[in-house]
Amino acid sequence: MKTSWRSASLVVSAVAVAALTTACGSETAPPASSQNVGATAAAGDYGNGASLGSGYDAGAAGEENAATPSKGAGAGELAVATNEELGEMLTDSAGMTLYRFDKDTADPAKSNCDGDCAAKWPPVSADDATAGEGIDKALLGSVTRSDGSKQLTVDGWPAYHYAKDTKAGDVNGQGVGGTWYALAPNGKKAQGGAGAEAGDLPGLSTRKDPELGEIVIDKNGHTVYRFMKDSPWPMKTACLNDCLEKWPVIEPVDAADTKGIDLKGSGPRGQGYVVFDRPDGIKQQTIDCVPIYTFAGDKKPGDTNGQGVGGTWYAIRPDGKPVGASEK
């Protein structure tokens, strides 16, 4: 990706290193790669929302029925289906949606979904997969998994079913954990018209929302939120365990991979774009020392379904301020 915001990466990186020397209430200088702040879990409700999952949907109940694809299920003749919100997407011969995982790689093809992950996201077998109408057979391939089985790939991306899709046309896996997306026929993410632009976005940037104004979005064009029960000074989080199923954390994003984000901060030491070492061991990006999240209920770029949820979740501005709420 060759865009103008990357041309200043060295300058921005230098700013980021300086920002990480003292910040967010820490009395000692952390390493340049992260802000190692001891966090205290606070009690509190995290609001309402669709319970979908974080990462590979680790907190999902795992219930399945006879209609759910099993691990290593075949695909048969692949087909192109049209979803009202997501546009064209790939399905197997039974009409079940195929997905890709952001933590996999396409070049070289590699799956990073095993164990419990593979139970919830069954790999699609490459053994009987063929290209149906509208699908370029040259894009179909396979990758050898850790158990020796062959998994279907589409333009290098390993393909999966989702255990919570129970009938043809279901797209319950779309956006889960901010890492799972329906596969488009060309191997990219099926995200409708806005999805075509998402592939060119930096890790964090901004967009003008017609109702909320300028808000932060992630690399997939999804709205970024903050939780009013979290604390930036010192950094603490009240979103743990089941909360993360609905509100996946934003993983660390290099300062050079941002556009329009305030990297300075307004705290006592004037630095706020740092990485938060959460009490559960997860590393989370912050803006102005405010931990940031996406919402599992946002299915496509431009959605703001998390705005105001529980009276505690709000879209975040480039300077870390909440949209539509006052800080106490």
Can you describe what's shown?
- With 328 residues, this protein is mainly beta.
- It has 2 domains: 4-54 and 202-315, no CATH class; 79-172, no CATH class.
- The chain is built from 4 helices and 18 strands.
- It has helices spanning 9-19, 116-120, 192-198, 243-246; strands at residues 79-83, 87-91, 99-101, 105-106, 109-110, 140-144, 150-154, 157-158, 180-182, 204-209, 213-218, 225-227, 231-232, 235-236, 275-277, 283-287, 290-291, 313-315.
- Strands 6-7-8 form a 3-stranded antiparallel beta sheet, with no helix packed on it.
- A hairpin with a 5-residue loop joins strand 15 and strand 16 (283-287).
- It is elongated and about 60 Å long.
- The N and C termini lie far apart (41 Å).
- The model is unreliable at 1-22 and 26-68 (pLDDT under 50).
List the main descriptive attributes of the protein structure presented here.
mainly beta; 3-stranded antiparallel β-sheet; Lipoprotein_repeat; elongated; SCO0930-like; 4 helices; lipoprotein; 328 residues; signal
Question: Sheet with the most strands?
Answer: 3 strands, antiparallel
- In DSSP terms, counting alpha (H) and pi (I) runs of 4 or more, how many helices? 4
Uncertain regions spanning at least 5 consecutive residues: 1-22, 26-68
Shape: elongated
How many domain units? 2
Number of DSSP-assigned strands:
18
Strand order of the largest sheet: 6-7-8
Measured as a percent range, the helix fraction is: under 10%
The separation of the N and C termini measures 41 Å
Q: How much strand?
A: 15-25%
User: Radius of gyration, Cα only, in angstroms?
Assistant: 20 Å
Compressed to H and E, one letter per element, the order equals HEEEEEHEEEEHEEEEEHEEEE
Q: What would you call the structural class?
A: mainly beta
Mean pLDDT: 80
